[in-house]
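tokens incoming
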């Protein structure tokens, strides 16, 4: 038994060290040219350590650094902060070229990455327990993505495609505290770190992840949420003329619209548009993309014909899967802690420490 305990504690300490050392590879720029500033060094050589900016461009799949054509990847580690087009980042940068464009990847320790993501995705002024819940969700998402991205040049994007990351500008004392207070904590299901999703406001019910995206996402179930009804996008309305709607979805003037199928949480999965004898069926996300993500804030909508227009009456904003941020905020304001908030939005998942 004693030997087993020693072995178990070794295993534990190994994984704990791994979590603390984990680095997230964030794709922070894709541009024809970028400007680097800071105390720069690459491949062991100092470059332009005179405080001036360094311009990097691309010729095909080759980088051009300060006018020198340099094949392969350039790693920049200033030992401090390096700025890309004025945005400051911690950790190291890797630059490479693809088809005439400079790609910049920031290799940043996960806890520093998270302190920035919390500012970008939630806001430094949000309640402490909501920020802590967001820290666990964002940490789980990033580690799950990193485990699945080993053969790709980066793990996550710096935009809403993954999680919004603004480098040092996203950090604040409150976001650093939320990350420190939950250090190494992740959501797991069946012993594996889960891709923990979140969105702005669920509109009263979160969505079943499997119904939207398929796959083995049993921990993303639909829960009723009474907490987010004060959110700015809890209800919204968007009106559009039949001709304009037809143009957006690639048909003539629309004569009928019908939601053919809904997910367990109520979101539109398939929508049929008719224009005379022509018709088209789009999935819910394709409808949002066609009409505009800012106009249709979610797929939790009904569509009615009113006064010669089509009227989308919707609830919430975002995909609706996982944690509802506005609901988490209300729960925190009502005295619930981050463990309770996570259990509410991820009832099947466990909260574990790496
Ligand atoms: Zn909600």
């Amino acid at each position: 038994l004693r030997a087993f305990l020693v072995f178990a504690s070794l295993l534990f300490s190994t994984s704990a060290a791994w979590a603390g050392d984990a680095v997230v590879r964030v794709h922070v720029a894709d541009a024809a040219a970028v400007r680097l500033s800071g105390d720069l060094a690459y491949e062991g050589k100092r470059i332009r350590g005179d405080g001036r900016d360094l311009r990097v461009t691309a010729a095909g799949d080759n980088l051009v650094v300060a006018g020198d054509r340099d094949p392969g990847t350039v790693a920049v580690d200033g030992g401090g902060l390096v700025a890309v087009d004025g945005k400051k980042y911690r950790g190291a940068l890797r630059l490479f070229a693809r088809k005439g464009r400079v790609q910049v990847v920031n290799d940043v320790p996960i806890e520093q990455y998270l302190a920035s993501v919390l500012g970008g995705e939630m806001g430094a002024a949000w309640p402490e327990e909501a920020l802590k819940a967001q820290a666990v969700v964002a940490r789980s998402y990033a580690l799950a993505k990193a485990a699945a991205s080993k053969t790709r040049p980066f793990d996550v994007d710096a935009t809403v495609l993954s999680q919004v990351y603004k480098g040092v500008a996203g950090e604040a004392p409150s976001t650093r505290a939320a990350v420190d207070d939950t250090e190494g904590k992740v959501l797991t299901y069946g012993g594996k770190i889960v891709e923990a999703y979140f969105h702005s406001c669920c509109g009263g019910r979160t969505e079943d992840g499997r119904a939207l995206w398929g796959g083995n996402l049993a921990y993303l179930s639909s829960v009723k949420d009474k907490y987010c009804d004060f959110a700015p996008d809890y209800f919204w309305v968007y009106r559009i003329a039949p001709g304009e709607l037809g143009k957006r979805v690639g048909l003539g003037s629309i004569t009928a619209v019908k939601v053919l199928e809904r997910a367990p949480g109520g979101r539109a999965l398939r929508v049929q548009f008719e224009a005379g004898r022509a018709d088209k069926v789009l999935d819910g996300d394709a409808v949002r993309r066609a009409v505009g993500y800012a106009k249709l804030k979610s797929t939790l909508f009904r569509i009615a014909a009113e006064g010669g227009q089509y009227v989308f009456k919707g609830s919430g904003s975002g995909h609706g899967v996982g944690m509802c941020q506005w609901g988490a905020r209300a729960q925190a304001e009502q005295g619930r802690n981050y463990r309770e908030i996570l259990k509410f939005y991820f009832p099947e998942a466990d909260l574990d420490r790496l």
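note: Residues 201-202, 225, 228, 324, 326-327 surround zinc ion (CB under 6 Å).
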